[in-house]
Amino acid sequence: MNVRRSAAALAASAVLCAGAAPAALAAPSPSTPPAPVIPSGLYGKKDPTYDGVWRQSFALLAQNTVGVKPAKEAVDWLAGQQCANGGFASFRADAATACDDKTMFDTNATAMAVQALKATGGRDAVVKKAVDWLKSVQNEDGGWAFVPGTPSEGNSTSIVISALAVAGEKPAEVKSKAGKSAYEGLLAFRLGCAAEPAAGRGAFGYQPAPDGKLPADADATAAAVLAGLGQGSVVSPSSTDTPAAAPACPAGAADPAGAADPAGAAQGAAGYLAETLKKDGHLTAVTPGADQPTADTGNTADAVIALAAAGHKQSAAGALEWLKTNSAEWAKDSPAALATLVLAAHATGTDPKSFGGTDLVTALNATGPAPQTSATAEPKPNASDAKDGGDDSNVWWIVGAGLAAGMGIGVLLSGRRKKNQL
């Protein structure tokens, strides 16, 4: 399960069910509501409630990146999910019904829709409204939450910053009503040289734990690399390729010079990812109900993209090879997972049509409406480069978690680190 979609379910359950949690637990529903009908223009066949816009955006972005012109109905479906105020929900089964005060707006879905619609072109008005909405829900600390009106967290802040950069905004100049910039909001989640344990230095956190400490989070760190570099999910292969270095922490200094500027922080975060990958050749996570970590395919792909963006393709080489061998089952029939692998291949100069024996492009195209054109021999660069998950096949454990009474939304959202694979 994609960690960002896990957050969507947690957020939805926390906000919608917090007040009624005791009653819900005392008298559980005898049956699960039927899944929505899958629209013809949507990629993927699994329940889109928590990831419809997210997976559609990734699918369109990846197709565009490799020279595939997506189906018009697919682009129309995504644009049609926008609410009148410019924001997007995770999924709207009936886009003809106006959004209201019960609509669960989703900053992550909105941000990815910005990237996808900017890339596919012809939807400038939709993109502008979405960008304006994202600016309107910026928290006073400069960051963003998954659900507007709740505390900022590192992952959503990074995803929004990347979208702003792709749309032509300057994140350093996007400021809250309190005068805090988007980058100030992001850097608040950075673990500097004073962080303990030392292995987490350079990383970014998702949200503080109940004890107030900010633990390192690989997902948030990978997203922060792209945000700090002012890049979106589409990363063109870099002309430079050097090993990523662990953050330097001089004796007696809180941080080395430049470590706290966005680009410097991004390089430190890349160093953390490279060091973390050395242990197993991939990232790991503890899934619900387990007491031992297992391979985290989605975040490993995100880390590969982040390292490539930072100019450290060789530091991602081992993880890329691991993905080629171990990602097929994880990505099967999942548009967001397949798209993420396409973007990882693109970022590293790898052929997405021969990725560990899999033609990712053909597999992605098969999950939705037939594209208008097929991929050409060479992937095309995206205009935003000058300036990235999967279907929820097992999401209901999260909804159950959200029904637990007495937990704040920040704590619930931090549970996104304990997830199933896509």
UniProtKB/TrEMBL annotation:
<feature type="region of interest" description="Disordered">
    <location>
        <begin position="366"/>
        <end position="391"/>
    </location>
</feature>
<dbReference type="InterPro" id="IPR001330">
    <property type="entry name" value="Prenyltrans"/>
</dbReference>
<protein>
    <submittedName>
        <fullName>LPXTG cell wall anchor domain-containing protein</fullName>
    </submittedName>
</protein>
<feature type="compositionally biased region" description="Polar residues">
    <location>
        <begin position="233"/>
        <end position="242"/>
    </location>
</feature>
<keyword id="KW-0472">Membrane</keyword>
<keyword id="KW-0812">Transmembrane</keyword>
<keyword id="KW-0677">Repeat</keyword>
<feature type="compositionally biased region" description="Low complexity">
    <location>
        <begin position="243"/>
        <end position="261"/>
    </location>
</feature>
<feature type="region of interest" description="Disordered">
    <location>
        <begin position="233"/>
        <end position="261"/>
    </location>
</feature>
<dbReference type="Pfam" id="PF00432">
    <property type="entry name" value="Prenyltrans"/>
</dbReference>
<feature type="transmembrane region" description="Helical">
    <location>
        <begin position="395"/>
        <end position="413"/>
    </location>
</feature>
<dbReference type="InterPro" id="IPR008930">
    <property type="entry name" value="Terpenoid_cyclase/PrenylTrfase"/>
</dbReference>
<keyword id="KW-1133">Transmembrane helix</keyword>
<keyword id="KW-0732">Signal</keyword>
<feature type="domain" description="Prenyltransferase alpha-alpha toroid">
    <location>
        <begin position="70"/>
        <end position="172"/>
    </location>
</feature>
<feature type="signal peptide">
    <location>
        <begin position="1"/>
        <end position="26"/>
    </location>
</feature>
